[in-house]
UniProtKB/TrEMBL annotation:
The entry's keywords: Hydrolase
Domain Prokaryotic-type class I peptide chain release factors: 24-40
Region: Disordered, residue numbers: 104-140
Record-stated family: Belongs to the prokaryotic/mitochondrial release factor family.
PROSITE patterns: RF_PROK_I
UniProt EC number: 3.1.1.29
InterPro entries: Pep_chain_release_fac_I, Pep_chain_release_fac_I_sf
Biased composition (Basic and acidic residues): 123-140
Record Gene3D superfamilies: 3.30.160.20
Name this protein carries in UniProt: Aminoacyl-tRNA hydrolase
Domain of life, source organism: Bacteria
MF terms in GO: peptidyl-tRNA hydrolase activity; ribosome binding; translation release factor activity
Length: 140
């Protein structure tokens, strides 16, 4: 069981939990485009993973096109020309995806507008009113 990814809180994702397969990259290419499978499809089954239950629920509740109906995260990496770099990119993106979706949102602390911002707002409204007044009929 090789360690693949270390997440926040010391949580590990093993190599056995991730299915990586090589596919042909899309788009224009050179001489190797039809011969070399350099793009990578990474599949990570959230339900069968060793993640904490809270994280699993948070990931499965996320409306994202990268999560299938079966709860499998699919990431395609094809930026680099080598398969190894694309694999590392896909793993890094999986880690970032999990971290982003499982980090609790900070509560916003409501603040009052400053006196200067209130004055600027009112001055802007007065200016706008003046512009609209000038659109009226011209008196002779």
């Amino acid at each position: 069981m090789a360690q693949l990814l270390l997440l926040r809180g010391g949580i590990l994702i093993d190599d056995s939990e991730v299915d990586v397969s090589a596919v042909r990259a899309q788009g224009a290419g050179g001489q190797n485009v039809n011969k070399v499978s350099s793009a990578v499809h990474l599949r990570f089954d959230v339900a069968k993973s060793s993640l904490p239950e809270m994280w699993k629920r948070a990931l499965l509740a996320t409306p994202d096109h990268r999560i299938t109906k079966d709860g499998v995260v699919v990431i395609k990496a094809q930026v680099h020309r080598s398969q190894e770099l694309n694999r590392a990119d896909a793993v890094a993106r999986l880690g970032a995806f999990i971290e982003q979706r499982t980090t609790p949102q900070r509560r916003r602390i409501a603040t009052r507008p400053t006196l200067g911002s209130k004055k600027r707002r009112l001055e802007g409204k007065v200016q706008r009113g003046e512009v609209k007044k000038l659109r009226g009929k011209v008196e002779e």
